[in-house]
Amino acid sequence: MGIDFGTKRIGVAATDTLMISVHGKGTYSPVTIVDFLDDFLEKEPVDKIVIGMPPKPSDLFTRALDKFVAWIAERSNAPEIVFHDEDFTSVEAKQALIASGASKKQRRNKELLDEVSAIILLQDYLGHREFF
Predict the structure, then answer these.
(1) What is the pLDDT of residues 64-83, one digit of tens each?
(2) 56 FRET partner, CA 20 to 30 A, in 18, 32, 65, 121?
(3) For the chain, which residues make up each domain, given as ranges?
(4) pLDDT at residue 76, as a whole number
(5) Three-state secondary structure along the chain?
């Protein structure tokens, strides 16, 4: 699972069990992500959560991320948490939307950008990006 963590929005992506393809799973607020993850982690096998880490995180980001990671770690079936450099994922997400023919309105949709950023983050971590 890949997470583009933010203090306002959290983009989520997941891969199939063979780790062949990565799919967006939506964008959530810090409040709604809890319900989504509770449900998702109960139903799907998740060995690892890859969380995007900006090169220079703010104090607010770091405090929110610490709380989020602690919440995941408290779970009885807590997956391993790995941090991965998310530098430029938002820029790459916008470029991917342009290349896919998305409209200007879609490219300005921050929820969609966060979801695509999570996809790119997880693809990069899995090494899928070297094929493109």
Answers:
(1) 999 999 999 998 788 999 99
(2) 32
(3) 2-131
(4) 78
(5) CEEECCCCCEEEEEECCCCCCEEEEEEECCCHHHHHHHHHHHHCCCCEEEEEECCCCCHHHHHHHHHHHHHHHCCCCCCEEEEEECCCHHHHHHHHHHHCCCCHHHHCCHHHHHHHHHHHHHHHHHCHHHHC
